[in-house]
Amino acid sequence: MKKADRLLQFSMSPTIMVRMSALTLFISLIAGVVVTATAGQGVACRREIPGELIRELWNRTNALINKLPKEERFSRRLRLLPKFCTKCSERSIGWLELQKIIDIYQASVFSRAAIKKFLPQHYDELLYRLYHTLQHCVSSSKHSKYSKTIKKMARKIKKRRDEGALKAVREFSFILRWIDELM
């Protein structure tokens, strides 16, 4: 037998074929797990965020909004939050964007002294739970396609100082509604 014939016969042996198919199956399973892990991010967030946490935040946010001073000088038509949608294909918001928005609210809105004096009891702990649950279930290595829009929102809030924070608190119910719609 020639060397080429032996090489062809060796490469076609049943043992090699079984090993190759097992290796192929193993690689495809690993690839499937990786795809499922990234696509399943929303499923993990749905499971990890308790509905009662959102309901409690909703109730306390409404109580907070009722305690805030009335809007006089600040334009009612000005919207700080970007226009996102959970059900439509364009301007669709996901868990990553919600995590970034909650991060901004934690740092720029609810930490302000003008807002802290109105916060209902245990509101900080509820926000902390939501923030850390989102941190846990959202991959921070991904980049949002709306990061510029979210940064623009953060600049608007910071630029308007306390008035921006008051307006942002009034719009926080939109964020809770988005979370509820994604669940």
Index terms:
single chain; globular; Interleukin-26; 4_helix_cytokine-like_core
Provide a descriptive summary of the structure in words:
Helices cover 70% and strands 0% of the residues. The protein is globular and about 40 Å long. Helix 5 runs parallel beside helix 8 (147-159). By secondary structure, the chain is mainly α. It has helices spanning 3-11, 14-39, 41-48, 51-67, 95-109, 113-116, 123-137, 147-159, 161-182.
3D shape: globular
Tell me the total number of β-strands: 0
Strand pairing plus helix content: what structural class? mainly alpha
Number of helical regions: 9
Order of helices and strands: HHHHHHHHH
**Mean pLDDT over the full residue set:** 75
Largest sheet, in brief, is: none
InterPro entries: 4_helix_cytokine-like_core
Organism: Goodea atripinnis
Protein name: Interleukin-26
